[in-house]
Amino acid sequence: MLKLIPPAAFRDLPYLTHLDLRHCQVELVAEGAFRGLGRLLLLNLASNRLNALPQEALDGLGSLRRLELEGNLLEELRPGTFGALGALATLNLAHNALVYLPAMAFQGLVRARWLQLSHNALSVLAPEALAGLPALRRLSLHHNELQSLPGATLSQARGLARLELGHNPFTYTGEEDGLVLPGLRELRLDHGALQALDPRAFAHCPRLHTLDLRGNQLDALQPLQGPGQLRRLRLQGNPLRCDCRARPLLQWLARARVRSDGACGEPRRLRGEALDALRPSDLRCPGAGAEEEEEEVAAARPRVPDGTSKEKAGAARPCPRACVCAPESRHSSCEDRGLQVVPRGFPNDTQLLDLRQNHFPLVPREAFPGLGQLVSLHLQHCGITELEAGALAGLGSLLYLYLSDNSLSSLSAASLEGAPCLGYLYLERNRFLQVPGAALRALPSLFSLHLQENALDRLALGDLAGMRALRWLYLSGNRITQVSPGALGPAQELEKLHLDRNQLREVPTAALEGLPALLELQLSGNPLRALQDGAFWPVGRSLQHLFLNSSGLEQISPGAFLGLGPRLQSLHLQKNQLQALPALPGLSQLELIDLSGNPFHCDCQLLPLHRWLTGLNLHVGATCAAPPSARGQSVKAAAAVFEACPGWAAGKAKRTPAPRPSAQRTPMKGRWQGANKVGKKGVGL
User: Fold this and answer.
1) Quaternary state and partners of this protein (predicted)?
2) How far apart are CA 576 and CA 555, in angstroms?
């Protein structure tokens, strides 16, 4: 609960090399907070509440090699923030709220080799955002909102060897994107929305060895021109059409000795067949003779118009008055223009349409004519109360639909028909009293459903019927008191379930049956009070992250976490009312357990927990609230409290190692060793 790191907070520790300030709820780092720490190698400020960094907050850290800022609330980076970190090798800014990178954002990081920017909301990178990073070798930009490949920006970091751009919603990339990275070896574009890839998209990446295109929407791919060292092409999870038009690809893979893991999606007779197991003669155009096949193959080859025709086409592009239509990115925006009806007349190749913060209560039938290539549609804060039947007609490529912060209380199946590929539906902060299950059946590809902060009071049987593709379900901040058994059953591939900040009085154990892929369960902020035996048994073999913080928990049964051992990585129990907790030896793979903010009573009843915690190489945050002599002490370190307990001596004998032949202390092998080597004078805090 530090909140603030004041100026010169560590000035009396000039030999400090490692400083760990994770999970301290830090909201502000004052200018000059770390002055005097000239030998510091690692600074970990992850999992705090920082929303900005003052200009000189990091001054005095001239030896710093690694800076962890993951899991904060940073919304912007000011040029010069990192200017004093000339020795920095790794900067981690993942899991923040960044939407934009300004020019020279990382000026001064002349030795930085790895920059992590994943899991933000980045949609715009300034052309010189990555300038001044001559040593950068790895850049992680996956899980952002990039609508097109920012090739010119990325090419500023010419030394890149590994570039991770997966889980971004751009639909096309080509040579015109301007990606020029002569040393690039691995490029990840997996799990995006790619529908087309120009053969010369990577013509200026001659050393590219591995290209990851898994989980996109590619049904065809031409032989790639330029990356002569390509040896691995990952295509798994694309709906590849294995007909005569795929012959050039198959022949190129064999000729260039490129390994591929793709499989056919069509035609039916070849569905599931591995691409590298096919012969050219297997690839036929149904019902076509030899001449017709040649014509079809020729028609599939890309035609690149000359520059003159491109300019003429661009000059003639339509765009509604009061809107901006950018031909390069294929984005059109009418954000906050006071519009009272949905405008029409956008370019037919528009891929992102932003109509946020206008006022049209009704979205009429066929509201978006001619936009068959539209991928992302933004309708937040528009006062929408109704989508008419056929409102999304013709949007066959739509993947993202944002309807957050409106006044919707219902949806019909007819209103969503016409967008069969829709994967991400955002309905948070509307007026839904129940899940619009009947309407959602019109979306067979729905992957992620956001219904946070509505007025739902239950999840009933049939609400998710037909949603076999659903992976992420967000129901936080509603009034849910019950999740009916079987309600989640249709979503057998569900990976994330967020039920936090509802009114559940018990874990919906029966409703968790039939979810073999569930990885993350959020139940924090519910009035649970107690956990019974086997509460999470149905998901014990898959669950990795469990959130039970701020749930009023007073009692946890010894068998509450039975079955959770094999895969659970993080357990959040902070800010409850626990005075006691049984030992949890079955949770052998934990990487994080948070017990802070509980009033633990450190008596003999807590001895098993104390013993278990002393065997963990983790910071757990558990402190004693009673007896008064132990108040404020760490449960893990309060050995004096437990010495009088029966069985203490036997437990101590088991844990005490044989004495060393020499009294000389050996260097501590902490969790940071391996990330950075520490000198003989190095100490850690």
Assistant:
1) Associates with collagen and binds to collagen fibrils.
2) 10
Structure letter (DSSP) for residue 362: E
Condensed to tens digits (0 to 9), the pLDDT of residues 510-559 reads 999 999 999 999 999 999 999 999 999 999 999 999 999 999 999 999 99
Nearest to 25 by CA among 594, 600, 599: 594
End-to-end C-alpha distance for the chain, whole angstroms: 17
DSSP 464: T
For residues 195 and 63, give the distance between their C-alpha atoms in angstroms, rounded to a whole number: 46
pLDDT for 592: 86
Name residue 600's beta-bridge partners. Answer: 624
Element (H, E) at 448: strand 448-450
With contact defined as beta carbons under 8 Å apart, do 171 and 196 qualify?
yes
Q: Is the dihedral of CA 20, 22, 23, 28 positive or negative?
A: positive
Judged on CB neighbours under 10 Å (0-12, 13-18, 19+), 632 is exposed
Q: Distances from the Cα of 581 to the Cαs of 60, 459, 506, 622, 646, in angstroms?
A: 43, 31, 18, 11, 18
User: Which residue(s) pair with 139 in the sheet?
Assistant: 115, 163
Average pLDDT, the chain: 86
Residues 476-491 have pLDDT tens digits of: 999 999 999 999 999 9
pTM for this predicted structure: 0.57
- Using CA atoms, how far apart are residues 65 and 288, in angstroms rounded to an integer? 63
Q: Cβ distance 123 to 102 under 8 Å?
A: no
Q: DSSP states of 239-294 as a string?
A: -EE-SGGGHHHHHHHHHTT-EE--BEEESGGGTT-BGGG--GGG---TT--HHHHH
Per-residue pLDDT of 36-60, as tens digits, reads: 999 999 999 999 999 888 878 898 9
Both tokens of 374, joined, read 């539209």
Q: Which residues contact 157 (CB under 8 A, 6 or more apart)?
A: 130, 133, 136, 139, 181
Give the whole-angstrom CA distance, residue 578 versus residue 556. Answer: 8
Cα angle 495-396-467, degrees, rounded to a multiple of 5: 30
**H or E element at residue 593:** strand 592-594
The set of long-range contacts for 297-302, using a CB threshold of 8 Å and a minimum separation of 24, is 297/244, 297/245, 297/247, 297/248, 300/220, 300/222, 300/245, 301/222, 301/248, 302/198, 302/199, 302/222
Partners of residue 162 on adjacent β-strands? 138, 186
Q: What own/partner pairs with CB < 8 Å and gap ≥ 24 does 332-340 have?
A: 334/358, 335/378
